[in-house]
Amino acid sequence: KSGCELFLRFITLAKFDTFAIDECRQKLIERGQVFLERTLSSRQRIAEYSQEFIVDGSIILTHSHSRVVLTLLAYASKFARFRVFVTESEPDKSGAKMRDELEAIGIPSICILDASVAYVMEKVTFVLMGAEAVVESGGIINKIGTFNIAIAAREMNKPFYVASESFKFVRYYPLNNRDLPDHFKYKASTIARLSEQNLEMEHPLVDYTPPAYITLLFTDIGTLTPSAVSDELIKLYI
């Protein structure tokens, strides 16, 4: 949704010197192509901005499967040698897929139980997460279990970094996990199948991690503190 909103905003913020329909249409197409090119290159820019944070000997903990985190680590592996712990990430075991893809590009990786996060946190240099969405407060919505990891990282004074494209910035301000709407927490098919009362028995797919637990966000518009996200949202949407 946020990507669509930004796309519409970008292509319509065009100054036209003519009222000819064909020329206006061509201008909109050109701006759409520029937006697509920027979006496709966003992960590479994130990887470049975050490179200095990954050094030889780093031990990184990540959660679930994230394409932007995979791109970031693949780029960093050209300059540093490091190891990665990947949570199994139930219920879909997406962490196993992430581990396999990291191993395929030569990055030593170990898949760990979700329940062992606090145990391995002592060995970790920092935590690196992707995000399903970055909200106005600078917090993130991500795969269920992310908040658990953030709590453990904070308790053990480990940096908690988030890598996210700016098109995932959303104009939404949840106060806590109970405040997340159902369309964030469950699949559309699950919502259609179950009543509101029965949804309470379902496992949510995502959780909300407040900004207080996040050290920095690596984005295609730069490295941001959580408090800077609201300012960037204003620039993106207004």
TrEMBL record:
Official protein name in the record: Translation initiation factor eIF2B subunit alpha
Gene Ontology cellular component terms for the protein in this record: cytosol; eukaryotic translation initiation factor 2B complex
Subunit record text: Component of the translation initiation factor 2B (eIF2B) complex which is a heterodecamer of two sets of five different subunits: alpha, beta, gamma, delta and epsilon. Subunits alpha, beta and delta comprise a regulatory subcomplex and subunits epsilon and gamma comprise a catalytic subcomplex. Within the complex, the hexameric regulatory complex resides at the center, with the two heterodimeric catalytic subcomplexes bound on opposite sides.
First-listed, main subcellular location of the protein, grouped into a coarse class: cytoplasm
Entries under SUPFAM superfamilies matching the protein: NagB/RpiA/CoA transferase-like
Molecular function GO labels: guanyl-nucleotide exchange factor activity; translation initiation factor activity
InterPro entries: eIF2B_alpha/beta/delta, elF-2B_alpha_N, IF-2B-related, IF_2B-like_C, NagB/RpiA_transferase-like
